Amino acid sequence: MHMKPVTLGVIVGNRGFFPDHLCITGRKTILKVLEEEGIHPIIIDENETKVGSIVTLNDAQKCAELFKAHRDEIDGILVTLPNFGEEKAIANTLRWAGLNVPVLIHAFPDDMTRMTVADRRDSFCGKMSVCNNLTQYGIPFSLTSLHTVNPESESFRADLRRFAAVCRVVRGLRNARFGAIGARPAAFNTVRYSEKLLERTGISVETIDLSEIFGRAARLHADDPKVKAKIEQIQSYVPTKNTPGEALIRMAKLGVVIEDWMAENQLVASALQCWTSMEEFYGVVPCTLMSMMSNSLVPSACETDIAGAVGMLALALASGKPSAIVDWNNNYGDDPDKGVIFHCSNLPKDLFLEAAASQEDAPQMDYQAIIAGSVGKENTYGTVVGRLKAVPFTYCRVSTDDLHGRILAYVGEGHLTEDTLKTFGGYGVVHVPNFQKLLAYICENGFEHHVAINPSMVADAVNEAFTKYLGWQVYYHH
Known about the structure:
Elements: E1 7-12, H1 20-36, E2 40-43, H2 57-69, E3 76-81, H3 87-97, E4 103-107, H4 123-137, E5 142-143, H5 154-173, E6 177-181, H6 195-200, E7 204-208, H7 210-218, H8 225-237, H9 245-264, E8 269-272, H10 277-281, H11 287-295, E9 300-301, H12 306-319, E10 324-331, E11 338-343, E12 364-367, H13 372-375, E13 381-387, E14 392-401, E15 406-416, E16 426-431, H14 435-444, E17 450-454, H15 459-469, E18 473-476
Parallel strand pairs: 1-2, 1-3, 3-4, 4-5, 6-7, 6-8, 8-9, 13-16, 15-18
Antiparallel strand pairs: 10-11, 10-17, 11-16, 12-13, 14-15, 14-17, 15-16
Helix pairs in contact: 2-3, 3-4, 5-12, 5-15, 7-9, 8-9
């Protein structure tokens, strides 16, 4: 997935009898900060309206037309108030543009040494009036951490980055297309979901049977250039010294077929059936291929867990980093705020300890130890095993509540730790504040055992995107 720079429509608010020079300098400052943060602005020309601000009904119409002309580019809108601002003009601009994108309201702070009629801003008060009008118009909006804030401060820059993450999540999930490869395994009732509820929110699911995937793979020859290239990619991605050559060929064919199918159908994420059809009837596990896709910001979840893949994609969109799907799997001793997360695994390589830090715990290809006894070790090669590195992380679970016709989620943050642990698969020890409260919430509300994780701190942005702009019901754990 290519993470394109965020584009924001920019509205500079102004009130007719307030000093224009505040808008002239304020506009320049905002545009400077946006450029420094790598954000592309769409803003009305400074000669098109009074100093390039939005004051009158005519200004609002002009700005709305500009935004509509760039509808396919604009990810969100920044409203900045160098002075009190004209709240009706701002609200009308947003209504008439009809973009339905996130909106951030910013107000400049007053300087206590410049409080005369020539320099006083009153943005502090004007921001409330803008928010009041947007509420009346039914237009959702986001706020900066501080009521008024210098745009060149780190506080505002952090707000801007968070808002950019919100915009990426909202834009990325609306009209997203997911691929479900295979049927839900009979033993995994936990990953049931409603395609119809996802479709209503803009998320489509394209399906394909495993027999079609296996059939297409069988038509490929080992000397096919695409298969050879995929083998090279696998071998450069993770050490494969203990993996039989035949298993690598099977993996490569499978990878080529899945990638081609996803490209043909313009899919941004996937979820695969694995246990135990893949091993019994094809002879490998798909974990390495899934790990490679997730590491390239194309999330791939286990056991056709499409709702889990939605959480993975949301986190990747917010952070620009790879997401993994894991099990909340074990307690860690007697510490109530620690636990073990685990998968077989298909975890992306970037989440593991590097070989330089620990050769023993660095990722490598192996066989699936849990099911090898029932389907044969020779049919289970392809896992990526190792220990996750100690970093802060965000977790997220999305679920469909079919009985009440709604989408639910929970989100929060924690830390992967360096606590001692020796086990198999892909694993790590986590510390989550008030972990027992979270676990009780998961159980009492019937959430799945799978959870998406991402090595970033983006819970605020994901929560805001889900609740304010997508209308999902979210539990934000603290």
